[in-house]
């Protein structure tokens, strides 16, 4: 195994065994060991021996988007061809007559799986924008089928490195000086390459070893074209009668735009790294690479070379004599502290972004994607916890609406019933025996098809919790993330909000309110009876079954009219054709298309009425 210096999910080894954790569509990390984890030998951590250091293997795949003469019109054509092909495949999946040998649920699931693989491969073909989009969508199980989410989580960012000549041009255009003037040595062969950029090892004139991240040329122009097209696609989805229901596609588009532009702003990433390091300045078990601001720009970022062993390379950690159980707990502890202390957290803490040094301290890399939990969200979370502790689905629904995680609709009965079902099951086990992965899976199962709108911050937190739980179990099979989180949850419940109230104060207030309401209940019943006797109280009863029958009868009557009109026109066309009046017969046949089309729409409406009620 090579020196572990996690670069980011942007490592570009072409080993087919690498996972999304090692090759994902984000700014590059700094981890030579990831480049060839299979063949690399165990060497001294931080070794700079060029004979031992792994290199980026050039890909034989040539991507159209990576060509200098790639035109905007061709780009638009490539994207729209993909969109139309997706719409066709999605339409075909719902047509039972398209299944060879007859329709079965198993065949439909297999076809969805094939389509998910096709989407992943096409996202990679379409380049940086869609690779990042795929990574973001892999966290949105509340929006997409499970097959899509599972396949997109495997998305690997394998692209060829761009030439060293372009590196020289970018560095010189950013700083007004050549590479030789800025660095005493600069390795022309990248440690890692990905769709958004690549990383090189270098040495400053004062002898300090650094890593230099250089952004791939042409990204701004590519994003501008792609996002304009994606906006049109989002608008289409928003207006779609099925996909647009209870979904804020334009809001999702805006969130993707923000994340994409932030990802390619290396100055913002540098500021994030500084903030993250300050938040852990009192902890000796967390390390963050220092930013060299003299050598930083929007397209180039120079950071301290801080090698370590990748946290998921369990054999190397064992060989280094480190306590795997302690590291599992430290990983969870570090993330929980981020959430509670200020709410500024690493939004993508996968194994490629976390390493361990020889002293057992955690090293964090890649701060292009960060999250911030606002104070009002934290206060709203207390209301949600109150509802959960009381198993009160009504209170949970109300708090989720206030948090913006749930879109209020006319009838929330199904949503309330789903939440109550989860509360009943969630509270069956002690907190420390719960599984983050199981909880998030239940949440997404409930959310899919319901008017839930999980904020990006929520999905990032849940994904991070699930990832850290998986890494923790790899380090220690007996590790339980919820057990580590229990004291932090207690702290959250006993901590005060902006008004100085704790969750227990809130529970006490509500208990007193219930007592007061109970005392006044007889008087309220007497008032209601008096209103009934005077006729001041009106009761409105809605019969769902009667509404369904009336709507169906109305639609059937209209359908009968369309059928009579269609039949009359077809008979006229037939008689005219037999009598030799071909032109007039053709006109009658064309006119018959109108009631025929109206009849088809009416049949679909009848089906929708049956499903609605």
Instruction: Please work out how many helical segments DSSP would assign.
Output: 20
Helix % is: 40-55%
Termini separation (Å)? 61 Å
Give the amount of beta strand, in percent: 5-15%
List keywords for this structure.
disordered N terminus, 11 strands, 613 residues, alpha+beta
Structure description:
54% of the residues lie in helices and 6% in strands. The chain is α+β, with helices and mostly antiparallel strands and 613 residues long. Strands 1, 2, 3, 4 and 6 form a 5-stranded antiparallel sheet that branches. α11 (324-340) packs antiparallel against α16 (456-475). It starts with 71 loop residues before the first helix and ends with a helix. Mean pLDDT is 76; it is low at 1-60.
Question: What would a concise description of this structure say?
Answer:
This protein has 613 residues and is an alpha+beta fold. It is built from 20 helices and eleven strands.
Q: Which helices and strands, and how do they pair?
A:
Layout: H1 72-93, H2 105-126, H3 128-137, H4 146-152, H5 164-175, H6 179-182, E1 185-186, E2 192-193, E3 197-203, E4 209-215, H7 219-239, H8 249-263, H9 266-279, E5 286-287, E6 300-304, E7 309-310, H10 314-319, H11 324-340, E8 344-346, E9 354-356, E10 362-364, E11 370-372, H12 375-389, H13 393-403, H14 413-426, H15 436-447, H16 456-475, H17 481-494, H18 503-534, H19 544-578, H20 582-612
Parallel strand pairs: 5-10
Antiparallel strand pairs: 1-3, 2-3, 3-4, 4-6, 7-9, 8-11, 9-10
Helix pairs in contact: 1-2, 1-7, 2-3, 2-4, 7-8, 11-16, 11-17, 12-13, 13-14, 14-15, 19-20
């Amino acid at each position: 195994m090579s020196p572990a210096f996690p670069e980011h999910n942007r490592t570009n080894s072409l080993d087919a065994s690498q996972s999304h954790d090692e090759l994902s569509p984000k700014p590059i990390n700094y981890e030579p060991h990831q480049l060839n984890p299979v063949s690399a030998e165990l060497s001294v951590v931080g070794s700079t021996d060029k004979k031992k250091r792994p290199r980026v293997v050039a890909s034989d795949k040539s991507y159209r988007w990576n060509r200098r003469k790639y035109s905007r019109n061709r780009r638009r054509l490539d994207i729209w061809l993909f969109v139309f092909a997706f719409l066709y495949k999605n339409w075909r999946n719902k047509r039972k007559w398209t299944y060879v040998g007859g329709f079965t649920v198993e065949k439909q699931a297999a076809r969805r799986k094939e389509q998910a693989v096709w989407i992943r491969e096409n996202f990679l073909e379409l380049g940086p924008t869609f690779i990042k989009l795929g990574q973001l969508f892999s966290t949105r199980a509340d929006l997409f089928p499970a097959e899509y989410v599972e396949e997109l989580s495997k998305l690997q960012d394998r692209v060829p490195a761009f030439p060293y000549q372009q590196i020289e041009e970018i560095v010189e255009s950013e700083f007004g000086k050549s590479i030789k003037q800025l660095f005493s040595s600069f390795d022309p062969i990248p440690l890692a390459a990905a769709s958004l950029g690549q990383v090189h090892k270098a040495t400053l004139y004062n002898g300090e070893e650094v890593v230099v991240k250089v952004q791939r040329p042409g990204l701004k122009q590519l994003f501008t074209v792609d996002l304009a097209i994606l906006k049109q696609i989002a608008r289409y989805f928003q207006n779609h009668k099925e996909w647009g229901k209870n979904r804020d596609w334009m809001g999702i588009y805006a969130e993707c735009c923000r994340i994409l532009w932030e990802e390619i702003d290396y100055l913002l990433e540098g500021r994030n790294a500084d903030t993250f390091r300050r938040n852990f300045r009192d902890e000796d078990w967390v390390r963050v690479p220092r930013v060299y601001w003299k050598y930083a720009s929007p397209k180039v970022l120079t950071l301290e070379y801080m090698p370590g062993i990748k946290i998921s390379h369990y054999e190397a950690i064992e060989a280094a004599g480190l306590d795997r159980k302690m590291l599992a707990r430290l990983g969870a502890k570090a993330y929980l502290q981020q959430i509670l202390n200020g709410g500024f957290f690493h939004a993508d803490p996968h194994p490629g972004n976390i390493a361990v040094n020889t002293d057992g301290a955690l090293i964090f890399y890649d701060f292009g994607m960060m999250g911030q939990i606002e104070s009002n969200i934290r206060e709203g979370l207390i209301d949600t916890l109150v509802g959960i502790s009381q198993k009160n689905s009504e209170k949970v629904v109300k708090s989720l609406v206030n948090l913006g995680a749930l879109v209020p609709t006319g009838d929330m009965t199904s949503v309330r019933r789903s939440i109550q079902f989860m509360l009943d099951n969630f509270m069956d086990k002690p907190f420390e025996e719960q599984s983050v992965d199981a909880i998030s899976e239940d949440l997404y199962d409930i959310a899919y098809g319901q008017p839930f709108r999980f904020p990006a911050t929520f999905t990032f937190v849940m994904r991070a919790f699930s990832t850290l739980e998986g890494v923790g179990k790899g380090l220690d099979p007996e590790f339980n993330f919820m057990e580590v989180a229990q004291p932090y949850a207690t702290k959250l419940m006993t901590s005060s909000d902006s008004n100085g109230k704790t969750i227990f104060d809130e529970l006490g207030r509500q208990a007193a309110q219930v007592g007061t309401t109970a005392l006044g209940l007889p008087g309220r019943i007497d008032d209601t009876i008096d209103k009934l006797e005077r006729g001041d109280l009106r009761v409105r009863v809605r019969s769902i079954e009667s509404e369904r029958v009336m709507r169906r009868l109305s639609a059937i009557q209209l359908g009968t009219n369309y059928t009579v009109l269609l039949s009359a026109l077809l008979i006229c066309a037939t008689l005219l054709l037999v009598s030799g009046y071909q032109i007039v017969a053709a006109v009658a046949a064309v006119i018959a298309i109108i009631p025929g089309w109206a009849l088809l729409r009416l049949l679909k409406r009848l089906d929708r009425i049956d499903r609605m009620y």
